[in-house]
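FW: tagging you since you asked about this chain on Friday. Here's the raw sequence from the shared folder, copied in full. Didn't touch anything.
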Amino acid sequence: MKKITALVLSAAALLSVSSAFKTPQPTGWEPLLDRNLSKWQTYESYRHQLGYKGTVPTNSQGKTIPPIGYGKNEANVFSVVIQKGEPVLRISGEIYGCVFTKQDFTNYHLKLKVKWGDKKWIPRLDEPRDSGILYNSQGECGVDYWHSWMLSQEFQVSEYQRGNAMGDYWRIANSTADIRAALNPTKDTLRYNPAAAPVTMGNGNSGFCQAAANYEVPNGQWNELELIQVNGESLHIVNGHVVLALANSAYIKNGQRIPLTHGKIQIQSEAAEVYYKDIMIRPLTAMPTQFAQYFN
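HL: got it, structure written out here
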């Protein structure tokens, strides 16, 4: 009996020690990343080449080349490594594509950490490193210019160079939104300005809007990004700073504006090596009061 009791106590002690090394999850937050990517699916499009002009690639006979497709992981573009006991998503960037959540989300607060790797691929060898968080994602992958992603809104994850910054906005496919923005005085592009009048993305403009400012930390360090999305109003937050707010998220179909207020979350593979960790989400019932000022 003493031997059995000792074994039970020993096992309990081991469980206690094991639990002590697990990072406690904040109340209300759901982790989205594990070592098996069990909450995500994958999609790969093509190995893009220099000179790409937005058309589906063809072979030597002029026939359309099919995409690599769903559930594929050619060249191990998507992998999970364990660092300090926690899962970290590595995206090599070698082939354009994405991981995307199996679940559809609406009205939520998403947060995660991101840092750059060293590798870059065609067509971004001489361009800033790039990735992105695509939200309110609906439909099939491959409907965008790069034939790689779903209809969605983009929270750009970009290395700060030539005006590109963490938190920029891109419309993906035929999405649109209203963003308070003014022309950048040094470049013919829009920049988020909460004091400016709203501009409809894609209505006579490129559908790109720069973040208000750059708050990226030096390469090799982790940036903390947050996305708050409630009823078609969204905030892009970089290392604690609100850098962009958009309202009236929608997409255009047959000339009509249709609300785009829910969907899956995609993380892009876009010709640059990048790492993501601590991907967490929690539901919201309304825009937090401290951020209401951005939508008045």
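FW: The longest helix spans residues 2-20.
HL: agreed, and Helices lie at 2-20.
FW: great, closing this out.
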